[in-house]
Design brief:
Helices cover about 10% and strands about 35% of the residues. It is mainly beta.
Amino acid sequence: MEIKKVTDPAFRKYGRIVQNIDFSGLVEALKETPLPDDVVYEPSVEELEKLQVFAEIQTKCYGELPIQIGYCNGKNYLLNALEYHRSSEINVMGTDAILLVGSQQDVTDDFTYDTSLVEAFLVPKGTAVELYATTLHYAPCSASESGFQVAVVLPKDTNLSLEASHEGWEDRLLTAKNKWLIGHPEGGLPEGSPLGLVGENISVKA
């Protein structure tokens, strides 16, 4: 598929490049986080949240709401699923990475989504992007064989375990706190995950 630069005007409906914050310390700290052959996600990491940039992100990007900083690292080339939150997510690239994104507005009334609508964007190392709440996204994809390291900033407790069962209508997509998920049948998700992606399980590998 075509992989556009994050500076392409096509990205504007999905998010923005975050300006006027120095993310270099966070990018450096990501080097100390694990980079496995699969994908690992940690929603809240003390070492990252101790950094000076934590308070600046919380104030400037989230209007003083409590936040968490974690990471998503590994090697991945497939879409597998799409998720959304009731809030923006900030991704800070410790390496070059590819984001596969779509629009929540294109999810049907029965919560299916055509994967042919997904777009791919290459985000360079050191760049931070805000993904809007209506942007469908999932784990980043590798821009090289060495894998990716990406810091993930979200409102506090996002992606933690649910405290109650959720069934029916959109509630059935809720797989963690503030996380609504639509999986692909070939995405290798845990049994019982909500499935609704229709079409190819997109790969960024040529």
